[in-house]
Amino acid sequence: MAILCCGGAGAAEGLRPYTVVGDAIPDSLTGAPGDPVRGKAIVTSRQTGLCLLCHSAPLPEEKFQGTIGPDLKGSGSRYSEGELRMRMVDSRRLNPDTIMPSYYRLDGLERVAPAFRGKTVLSAEQIEDVVAFLKTLRDETRNP
């Protein structure tokens, strides 16, 4: 069953509508593919994505990688583009107890600092860039 998301108040705040199908958001939030080079910069940024705070990745040049979340190595083999997008947009839809932030959500959030209320952590374009980068992280032992 497909569920259309981000209508109502969210759309008024600038969120682009998307459709959830199962455990994925199959279509790009922007209608265009992301840029994996920009996505890598977001993943490695200690100010923007903060991904490496919790996750490790096959990026030996990046020190102090996290171990709380799953290793990003092979994520492009384990998950479809739509599954990666869902995890970035709102991982709580898949696991209500996760500590991973919802990077493209406005409603239902609590304890948000006043400066960040009404804003997503990442833009739709940034989500697509991170998804494009994660798709490059292929497990060499699996089929493409």
Task: Explain what this protein looks like in three dimensions.
The protein is built from five helices and two strands, in the order βαβαααα. With 144 residues, it is mainly alpha-helical. Strands 1-2 form a two-stranded antiparallel sheet. Helix 2 (36-44) packs across helix 5 (124-136) and helix 4 packs across helix 5 (124-136).
Distance between the termini: 27 Å
Order of helices and strands: EHEHHHH
Radius of gyration: 15 Å
Shape, principal axes of CA atoms: globular
SS content category: mainly alpha
As a percent range, the share of helical residues equals: 25-40%
Q: List how many beta strands DSSP finds.
A: 2
SS element count, helices: 5
Query: Hey, roughly how much beta strand do the residues contain?
Result: 5-15%
Low-confidence stretches: 7-13
User: Order of strands in the sheet with the most strands?
Assistant: 1-2
Largest β sheet strand count, sense and barrel closure: 2 strands, antiparallel
Q: What integer is the average pLDDT? A: 88
